[in-house]
Write a structure and sequence with these properties.
By secondary structure, the chain is of the alpha/beta class. It contains 14 helices and ten strands. An eight-stranded parallel β-barrel has the order 1-2-3-4-5-6-9-10, surrounded by five helices. It has a two-stranded antiparallel ribbon with strand order 7-8. The radius of gyration is 25 Å and the shape is elongated. It binds phosphoenolpyruvate and manganese (II) ion.
């Protein structure tokens, strides 16, 4: 597939907005009163351009609340007419798409569980052929950029150019502060591979609680993401799904006011300073690569020496000493020791690979 994508800018389908464009609403539509109450409050927040609500909820256990279904689309139609907000719903099956289109929904989103399944994505993309509806694709549960990119490409290939990604974090096995690990490097790599693709961050599903939402939203903006998808509920504690992470619309308004919107590339003075710093980084990166290449050359010589003298490749005592002395040096320079440890481990792994290759060549 070609590397150039012609993707419609966000303001062409979400309306004129400043960064961040916000999509907000309950995890699940629960009743007509609930969605209308939330919608009326959201309509007063200038950054909120669209309301979200889950109509069909993919749940882990079949006994849990699974969404209100078609009835909910009728309520969302009322919201759309009364408030003028655009409406976004999640679709996971062709039948969902048919109903969402029948009720005039404005935006569709693909949930994390669906993105992980290329069969489903292909099927949904085919149903959408010839339509002009915007599609948001959430990242898959596992940190696999290719699956995310592949899903976006499947929609793009069937002619969907009002396309955006939603970064909702990745499943993590270990206990941490987040319900889903943000792994920011993955959406950053997506931005690089699909230039022009709008990206929303979904701090609600990343955090899984109410307390870290502001911090994660700020981080998303600092990384130049275009929008935020944040779950709001008129009675978060009583929400039927994801109650720990939903916030009141008034809390959302406060979080949005408190965000610092840093300049992007606007002022010439800012660009000059940044250009200069980037240039320095470019030079240092080149030096780093040259130094690493020199180190690997010595590893090569060592590999040959060890092979010719029948010495084992890994000498654990030497490795232990090396790590502790390098970490001490890192400490003196005020560097994060975990970071340096990671780098040393990578370099060491490559050294062992090179030496093993040398040894195997002899035995061939
Ligand atoms: C949701 O947005 O409510 C949802 C189910 O999200 P995800 O697919 O990211 O888990
Ligand atoms: Mn949810």
């Amino acid at each position: 597939m070609s590397e150039t994508y012609v993707i419609q800018p966000l303001n062409s389908w979400l309306g004129d907005h400043e960064r961040p464009a916000v999509i907000s609403g309950p995890c699940s539509a629960e009743s007509r009163e609930q969605v209308l109450d939330i919608a009326r409050q959201l309509a007063l927040i200038p950054q909120v351009k669209a309301m979200r609500a889950g109509i069909w909820k993919p749940r882990t256990r079949p006994s849990a609340f699974e969404g209100v279904g078609e009835e909910g689309l009728k309520w969302m139609q009322v919201v759309q007419q009364e408030t003028g907000l655009k409406i976004a719903v999640e679709v996971a099956k062709p039948a969902h798409i048919e109903l969402a289109l029948k009720y005039g929904m404005d935006i569709l989103w693909i949930g994390a569980r669906t993105t992980g399944n290329p069969f489903s994505i292909q099927e949904l993309a085919e149903v959408l052929t010839g339509t002009d509806i915007p599609v948001l694709v959430k990242n898959p549960l596992n940190p696999d950029l290719k699956l995310w990119l592949g899903a976006l490409e499947r929609f793009y290939q069937t002619g969907i150019i009002k396309l955006a990604a939603v970064h909702r974090g990745f499943h993590c096995f270990d206990e941490g502060p987040y319900r889903n690990n943000p792994r920011w490097e993955i959406p950053i790599e997506l931005m690089r591979l699909m230039p022009g693709l709008p990206i929303f961050c979904d701090p609600s599903h990343i955090c899984g609680n109410r307390y870290l939402i502001a911090e994660v939203s700020q981080k998303a903006l600092d990384l130049e993401m275009d929008g935020l998808m944040i779950e709001t509920h008129n009675n978060p504690d009583k929400a039927l799904t994801d109650s720990n992470q939903q916030i009141l619309p008034e809390t959302l308004a406060k979080i949005l006011i408190d965000l610092t919107i840093r300049i992007e590339k606007s002022s010439p003075e800012f660009s000059n300073i940044l250009e200069e710093l980037r240039l320095k980084i470019d030079i240092i990166d080149t030096q780093l690569i040259e130094i690493l290449a020199k180190r690997m050359k010595i590893v090569h010589e060592m590999g040959e020496y060890k092979r010719d003298h029948n010495i084992t490749i890994l000498q654990i005592e030497r490795w232990r000493e090396l790590i502790s002395s390098r970490l001490e040096t890192a400490g003196k320079h005020g560097m994060n020791r975990d970071f340096l440890l990671h780098i040393l481990q990578l370099v060491h792994k490559e050294s062992i690979r090179i030496q093993t290759e040398i040894l195997n060549k002899k035995e061939e």
